[in-house]
Amino acid sequence: MSRKEVKSSGTDDPVRRALRAETGTPTHEARGSGERAFLVGLDYRVRSRKAKKSITSGAQAARDASTSVAPGAKAASIPEFSAEESLDELHTLATSAGAVVVGELLQRRDRPDPATLIGGGKLEEIAGAAASSHADLILFDHDLSPSQQRNIERILHKRVIDRTQLILDIFARHAKTREGQLQVELAQLEYMLPRLAGRGIEMSQLGGGIGTRGPGETQLETDRRKIYRRVRHVKEQIENVKRIRAQQRQRRESAPIATVALVGYTNAGKSTLFNAMTNAEVLASAQMFATLDPTIRGVELPSKRKVLLSDTVGFIRNLPHTLVSAFRATLEEVQRAALVLHVSDASSPLTAEQDAQVELVLKELESEKKPRLHVMNKIDLLEPKQRETLRDDAQTVHVSGARGIGIATLLERIDQLLEEDPIRRVHLQIPQREGKVLAMLAAKARIYSREYQDGVVEMDAEAPESVVRNVREWVRK
Length: 477
What we know:
The protein is of the alpha/beta class. The chain has helices at 14-20, 59-64, 83-96, 120-132, 146-156, 163-174, 178-192, 200-203, 213-253, 270-278, 321-326, 328-335, 351-364, 384-388, 407-417, 435-444, 465-470; strands spanning 35-47, 52-56, 99-109, 137-140, 159-161, 258-264, 295-300, 306-311, 339-345, 372-377, 396-398, 423-431, 446-453, 456-464, 475-476. The chain is elongated.
């Protein structure tokens, strides 16, 4: 198992952040480099009279929503992550958060233990393994209820973090803009609020022991009110951001310029593809959730039409609902897009499973019926024989954002699918003295033929409807 050293996130506890917001105290504390993490995976086996089938922890949510993946699709056809694949993804998430993975354990059981999720005997085994590997924290590949998390910490005497809290930590690590930081803070606070219950004595400023329950609960209620106040404040700021974004979108939509949104599983190569299509320099990293803050750039299509390309946050299996809610202002770019580019990692053995999870998030955003083009990225990582078998079709294009392979084909396909400001083929006769008109057509139209005769330029061209309207007096049938 790799133990590559990486930096820790230094993410502050959102409870402390909310409390310090009352006094203006700085909110970030560095935790030190390379916290040592021990991973715990779970595999629940569903038993029936006819057969035994193993499902990954958390996969039931995908099963419940599977009817939304495609019209006529059967629930049984939805690909699911195996327990081993899910644990591998947790390993990647842990390293993205700055942890050094020092051990892992996968438990298979028939049903979750309501008190500790995995049972007292297995917790004792984990305690011994974590102690021998000098682990600082235990990461569960599962969402823990507040009582389960407290019970496990009481037995293991170590910090315990579930999958949702880990993803929130990564988001906090990568949020750079004020908008992104607000969205992450809101999600963290909403996640943490129910976990304050039952911790009154621990949060008391008078210490523990007999007779401290009253002051402890009073302190808990005081802290809870401060957090609620902070939540309201953050929501108000996010609403301001949402209003400004809506105004910007309204100004963009006043011109006939369509928006194309990139969506896909985290680390599918969306930012690299975005850079290849726009010549931008957006951060492209192999780490999960390297892109949180939305970026929009203009792109010129082969027809000379201009579109706006939007890079969005990556999706992931069991994406926390608090994050989907907090990032809804950002993800509105997907909801308002004229075309969605679903980017997949063609080199990943889990492409089908990842695509199914993207479908679920699009369903939650009510964007699953948007016009869509499937972009299979990273074909440069495939074996040459595999690349030779790839064939583009009406719904799919194969590209490599890193090597620039297939970008021209992708732009052509976007041009064909967009309905905004449609392309018209026209025959024009324009006087040569109309230099501005001729220059405008050279810049905004695709010219197939051009002839000069008696002071008139006769040409066949394809141009957006908005351009044709400006030259309609010279259009000839």
